[in-house]
Amino acid sequence: MTKYEWYKGVTTNRRALLLGVLLVAVVALLLNSQRAITVQVAVPEHDVPITVFGLGTVEARVLSDVGFEVGATLVELNADHGDRVSKDAVLARLRDSEQKARVAKAEAGVVSGEAAVHMAQTVVDQARTVLAQRQQTNRRLQRLLTQKTVSAEAAEDAQLQQDVAAAELAVALTAVEVAEASLADARAQLDYDNVLLDQHVLRAPYDAVVVKRHRELGSVLNAGEPMFTLVDTATVWALAYVDESRAGDIRVGQPVEIRLRSLPRTAISGQVARIDIESDRVNEERRVYVVCDQCPGSFFLGEQAEVLITTTVLDEATLIPETAVAELYGSGGKIWVVNDKQLQLLAVEFGSRTLDGRVVITAGLPDGAMAVTELHSGLHEGRRAKVATQETP
Question: Are the C-beta atoms of 288 and 237 separated by less than 8 Å?
Answer without folding.
Answer: no
